[in-house]
Amino acid sequence: MIQRISAFTGTWLPAIVLAAAALAFATPGTFAPLGGIVTYLLMIIMLGMGMTLRPADFTIIGRRPWPVILGVIAQYLVMPLVGYGLARAFDMEPMLAVGMILVGAAPGGTASNVMVYLSKGDTALSVAMTSVSTLLAPLLTPVLVLWLAGEFLPVDAGALLVSILQIVLVPVVVGLLLRRFATRFVEKVIDALPLVSVVGITLVVMAVVAGSADALLEVGALVLLAVVLHNGFGLGLGYALAKLGRLPVTSRRAVSIEVGMQNSGLAAALATAHFNPVAALPAAVFSVWHNISGSLLAGYWSRRPARDAEPVPEDAAS
């Protein structure tokens, strides 16, 4: 039963998040208090991510290091620079500019693994990229935000580092340890983890939208356009760089989706904690849009199997 519910919510995630965002926008006073628990929601999501990881997910780094290295470099090069460029091109107010950069400097999102699997891409590479970019986030995200967003607003990189350690690294490591030393417990709850992630990201989006409903009325169209372009550039440039790196088609699909889909929940949590809900608007819109675009792209590629496609290991698809 839980498996069916998790599969249903995962399939309909874009619609669920969009409906939740509309509800929060219509009655912001009801959901604004959720802003106080955004950080804890992200910690639960990252704990779940850690519980799904296995040592086998990292073996690709030793067997095929080049695709992982190229993919992670693209992740932390393309999206931050595109976010900065769009903020400048649209002459965004400082809070929105910081929000765009925060989304760009975030690691890859966990939903990307599902999209890569559906697109008949290299799922093992996708999982490795998500894992490595997440583990590097405490170092790279604060540095990138300080570098690119510092001209818009003062940035406390040290505080960002501490927050990412608390929100990302500690829960992921705890999840890994639970997977290693409390296997029976993890096996009992693992089917519910996709559902927990959907509920968590939905509540984060509702909190951000409710907390910045007035600003959304003023700048909603601008933010939507910027987010669509940001995501589109990420998908396109990710694929192009993977092609330049002479990766096979399945790996290009994985890099494309990994680069284009961000951990926007983390960006929203950092924006809310260190700036204000307006800075979290790009992340909230990104949470909805990248699941829509990722699903559409995965559907398109799924009907065009790559000639170099290899069978996806069962453990990589789970």
Q: How does this structure look, described?
A:
- With 318 residues, the protein is mostly helical.
- It has helices spanning 2-11, 13-26, 28-31, 38-52, 59-63, 65-89, 94-105, 111-118, 123-149, 157-181, 183-189, 193-211, 213-244, 249-260, 264-274, 281-302, 314-317.
- Helix 6 (65-89) crosses helix 14 (249-260).
- It is globular, with a radius of gyration of 18 Å.
- Residues 309-318 have low confidence and may be disordered.
Give me a quick take on this structure.
The chain has 318 residues and is mainly α. It is 79% helix and 0% strand.
Please outline the helices and strands:
Elements: H1 2-11, H2 13-26, H3 28-31, H4 38-52, H5 59-63, H6 65-89, H7 94-105, H8 111-118, H9 123-149, H10 157-181, H11 183-189, H12 193-211, H13 213-244, H14 249-260, H15 264-274, H16 281-302, H17 314-317
What distinguishing features does this structure have?
single chain; 318 residues; mainly alpha; 17 helices
Number of helices: 17
Kindly, what is the distance between the CA atoms of the first and last residues, rounded to a whole number of angstroms? 17 Å
The succession of helices and strands, N to C, reads HHHHHHHHHHHHHHHHH
Strand content: under 5%
* Average pLDDT taken over every residue: 88
* Rg over CA atoms: 18 Å
The biggest beta sheet is recorded as: none
Regions with pLDDT < 50 over 5+ consecutive residues?
309-318
The secondary structure category is mainly alpha
**Residue share in helices?**
over 70%
Large-scale geometry: globular
